[in-house]
Amino acid sequence: MNIDTPLYLDGEWRPAIAGKRIAVSNPATGEVIGYVAHAGEADLALAVEATRKGFATWRATGAFERAKLMRRAANLLRERAEGIAAIMTAEQGKPLAQARDEVLKSADTIDWFAGEAQRTYGQIIPARSPNVIQQTIKVPVGPVAAFTPWNFPINQIVRKLSAALAAGCSIIIKGPEETPASPAELIRAFHDAGLPAGVLGLVYGVPAEISNYLIPHPDIRKISFTGSTRVGKQLAAMASQHMKKITMELGGHAPVLVFADGDIEAAARQMAYLKFMNAGQICVAPTRFIVQRPVYEAFIEKFVAAAGKIVVDDGSKETTTMGPLVHARAVEHIASLVEDAVAQGARIALGGKRIVRPGNFFEPTVLRDVPVAARAMNDEPFGPLALITPFDTYAEAIAEANRLPYGLAAYAYTGDASTVIALGRDVEAGMLSINHVGISLPEVPFGGTKDSGMGTEGGSEAIESYLETRFVTVAGTL
Q1: pLDDT of 478 above 70
Q2: Quick one: pLDDT at residue 120?
């Protein structure tokens, strides 16, 4: 498969003005499979000017018309799901089934926000005088700059894109250079659905150069970023200097609290699937398994049995259930975390090694009895590494769950109603899923607390950060 990806500027697909390109490799083979256009300052200037004009057009388009166009794009995405999934697997590595699922769920997200376009309600506020009307109205904040990662090449974009378009904003997306072609297919669906020129732009290049140009630009009024906490803090600081609205979806290190009265079989099965999905390259991936001592050995046995059934191979094969990591350096990172943990007393229950073959493969790995001092217990692994440690009391479990500065996702399994209530109060996470996997749906909030971010990218609240509230008061004469 040979995939070349141009920029999308002012309603047209075009190469970078300077002609620069970046090579794209298949992480399962290491082979170059295409090139992506490398935007320079001239391209970015064109993108901003186009999105400024596009905003004037799109904000004047009625909510019902915006929603109709968005639904056309969603249907095109569904019709093209098989071809897009093949592209995503080639450039990102995830199994075809997971790539296909990402495309289809992204279409659902577009549909959800299309409905939200028609629900940006204001208020009538009771006035003190009978001849005064006080009201708030919602208006789009303006052109948006969005920065997205490679682990979910379409899903990470579609949340930002759909919320922006539903609100009436135009948007420039800085897509992931590692996985450029599948996001381009998302943008193509909107182009083919009839989105006016300038409403949507897509650029690739050096992330720092693009953020340094777009964030301070006076025509950009809102910033949305998904990525590491370190970079997110830098971009948030830059945006605050220019009084820009921000949404930040940053790193995580999700705890899983498994209580002795929980369904151990379901916990092991569901969490093993989620842990090793996308080779563990998920910000909400369960990572620290904090298991009550009476069921500690039983949970490890069941979890290892479930993880041991994973088939690691090239994601283009239908039998594959876990593909490669996206970078060779990611393999080195996981290997170093395993080595450090074992040196500090952790024991390998499954895996623990690189898979010697072309591509960036690592075994699904489970470590037990992992000490708190191990690097993996403190730094986000972002790979196929599960860490299991025991606890005795509820207080100990909560202390470990909340120990880190991250607060994105958390999971728990318990059969006790009072524990369920207490967990909702005590676990410091933006999302807590108890007794099942129930996050990342379009209709529910998606976001974190503490160092894991600011704002949400799902549910009815997500569109709010793309809107401004204006107060209008009118006095009449009787």
Answers
A1: no
A2: 93
pTM (2 decimals)? 0.96
Active site residue 283: yes
d(Cα 269, Cα 64) in Å, to the nearest integer? Answer: 43
Q: Which of 85, 134, 141, 81 is nearest to 110 (CA)?
A: 81
Residue 133 has pLDDT above 60, yes or no: yes
Domain boundaries along the sequence of the chain: 3-250+453-471, 254-442
Q: Which class in CATH covers the domain with range 254-442?
A: alpha beta
pLDDT score at 446: 96
Please provide the CATH number assigned to the domain covering 3-250+453-471: 3.40.605.10
Cβ proximity of 116 and 125 under 8 Å: no
pLDDT for residue 476: 85
Given a cut of 90, is residue 241 above it in pLDDT?
yes
Q: Is residue 443 flagged as an active site residue?
A: no
pLDDT at 334: 98
Catalytic option among 102, 249, 457, 464: 249
pLDDT number for residue 477: 66
Instruction: Catalytic residue, from 283, 363, 457, 464: name it.
Output: 283
